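Chapter review: from sequence to fold.
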Amino acid sequence: MIFSAQGKNHGIEVFSHKHASVLTFTVMLLASNSVFGFEDCTPPIKPSLPDGATATMQDMLKGQNAVKDYQARNMDYMRCLQTHIDKEGTTVSRSLDSATRAIALTNHGRANTAYNAAVSAEEEVAGDFNIELREFKAVNAR
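The token string follows.
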């Protein structure tokens, strides 16, 4: 504990063991690589899509293949994140140490957020391609 002279608080913050524990935990949490424990999971880059209004059939097929490739890489990314979600969830439920549990809970939340963003990104790519496909069909309807 840190006290001012004669144990009185003369405008100087008095830290208890509880405050020191929270401060220590926060510093450890920020410095720990385990906070960002899913660096091995690499999100795929969204493909560039053809413009349905001007694209050729070959452009559209190339775009479709790019979307399928993106979806496959995104599935790998989500599987990787899921392993971290499962691992951190197990740590949260089994750990008796509150600091370990707090780190695992943070990691679990970050991995879940990344997973949900990956799902949304995939839906966006598929939706955008479908818009271009409808445009392509409208322009090329004969």
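Two observations follow directly from the output. The CA atoms of residues 34 and 107 lie 7 Å apart. Residues 1-35 have pLDDT under 50 and may be disordered.
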